[in-house]
């Protein structure tokens, strides 16, 4: 088995470059960024209390680890692009550029680097005696199956062990039933759907029993801030409509996966399962994106990310463009209502925080486990020693590389060390 390459046709290459140029322009205007952690800082930038350079530095600091530790390894292991690799750099480049045209040029340039450079890197790495990229495919099974458990963890944290046990038993039964009865379906898709629906039902029931919360009352400072942010986004609705259309076309091209697990499903050609996974995943981030967008006046580059699953399922780029434009228009126009809704249903708002934390926990375990499998494939015990040792050293040093990205980054570094040892005649790959 060899590592998949990034074999893009000319229309796909042009789509990637154009989308990167557009997202960089949007970031330059401080209208949207992909990194949720950067969005709150844009409030000061928009009001002139922070410089472009300082905001760029924040964006780079919060994004670099995800680009090189998560986005690049996932793209190399699947042959499918992802938002960490494309949009985190365009956040930084767009904020860095002092002019709109320069932002477009830099963003498009990054898209070209990814399109033409990643395949070259894939070819070079595939020719090494220790094949790191093929080993990285070991990440797929842990990510796909452990990711299905995130609703169980969220339910346990928010509603206790009893409901967590029920959710776990139901999900396990559904995974087994799916594997037995519908072997062509991704085994975790139905389990995730039931888990997310159970969590939302429990949250709504709790809020109904407790009665409506007053939330952000009209005329309060928070409501005033939210209305200002929503009005700023509505003024730029045509640009968001264009962004939604472009993102949907990119997703429809099937060279892009919006989530951590989605790239592996896109690579398998299972677009329906990919749409299901990204649809459920969106609920974990919706309240965060809505509240930070309303507070800062800057939206998410992918909106609520519903544009991803919609794009995967569209039959052609024209239908995808129309659907993506409609979704983004509806999202921007509905932001104020979403903010008021979340304010009145605190348990529903809180469940998204538990979902997001659970997604992070499942992925951290999946990435660590998958990385150790990759280490074993590359170098057996010595590979596990190098990759596991680098991961533990990062922990001991206070995590200079963020935990989510540390294990895949350790695979890349460990693979490089194993190749050096091979050239020094100190190591023989298990498959050589």
Automatic annotation (TrEMBL):
TM stretches of this protein: 14-34, 104-124, 136-155, 162-179, 185-205, 237-256, 285-308, 320-343, 363-393, 405-424
This protein's UniProt keywords: Membrane, Transmembrane, Transmembrane helix
Pfam families in alphabetical order: YhfT
UniProt keyword annotation of Magnesium present: no
Record protein name field: Permease
């Amino acid at each position: 088995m060899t590592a998949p390459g990034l074999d893009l046709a000319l229309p796909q290459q042009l789509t990637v470059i154009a989308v990167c140029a557009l997202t960089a322009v949007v970031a330059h205007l401080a209208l949207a960024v992909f990194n949720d952690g950067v969005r709150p800082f844009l409030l000061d930038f928009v009001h002139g209390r922070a410089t472009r350079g300082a905001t760029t530095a924040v964006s780079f600091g919060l994004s670099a680890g995800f680009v090189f530790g998560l986005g690049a390894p996932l793209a190399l292991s699947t042959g499918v692009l992802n938002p960490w690799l494309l949009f985190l750099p365009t956040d930084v480049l767009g904020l860095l550029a002092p002019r709109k045209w320069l932002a477009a040029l830099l963003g498009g340039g990054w898209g070209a680097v990814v399109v033409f450079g990643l395949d070259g890197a894939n070819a070079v790495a595939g020719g090494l005696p220790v094949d790191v990229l093929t080993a990285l495919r070991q990440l797929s099974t842990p990510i796909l199956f452990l990711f299905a458990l995130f609703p169980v963890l969220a339910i346990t944290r928010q509603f206790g062990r009893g409901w967590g046990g029920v959710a776990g038993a139901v999900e396990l039964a559904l995974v087994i039933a799916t594997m037995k009865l519908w072997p062509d379906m991704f085994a975790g898709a139905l389990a995730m759907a039931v888990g997310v629906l159970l969590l939302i039902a429990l949250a709504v029931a709790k809020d109904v029993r407790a009665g409506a919360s007053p939330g952000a009352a009209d005329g309060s400072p928070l409501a005033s801030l939210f209305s200002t942010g929503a009005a700023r986004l509505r003024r730029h609705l045509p640009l968001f409509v264009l962004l939604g259309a472009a993102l949907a076309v990119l997703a429809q091209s099937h060279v892009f996966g919006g989530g951590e697990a989605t790239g592996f499903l896109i690579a398998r050609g299972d677009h329906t399962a990919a749409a299901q996974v990204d649809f459920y995943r969106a609920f974990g981030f919706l309240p965060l994106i809505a509240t930070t967008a309303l507070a800062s006046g800057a939206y998410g580059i992918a909106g609520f990310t519903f544009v991803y699953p919609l794009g995967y399922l569209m039959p052609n780029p024209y239908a995808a463009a129309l659907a993506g434009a409609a979704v983004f228009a509806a999202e921007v126009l509905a932001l104020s209502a979403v903010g008021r809704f979340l304010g009145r249903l605190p348990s529903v708002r809180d469940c998204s925080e538990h979902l997001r934390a659970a997604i992070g926990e499942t992925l951290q375990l999946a990435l660590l486990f998958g990385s150790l499998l990759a280490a074993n494939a590359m170098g057996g015990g010595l590979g596990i020693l190098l990759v596991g040792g680098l991961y533990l050293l990062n922990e001991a040093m206070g995590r200079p590389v963020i935990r989510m990205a540390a294990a895949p980054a350790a695979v890349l570094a460990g693979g490089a060390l194993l190749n050096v040892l091979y050239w020094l005649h100190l190591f023989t790959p298990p498959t050589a």
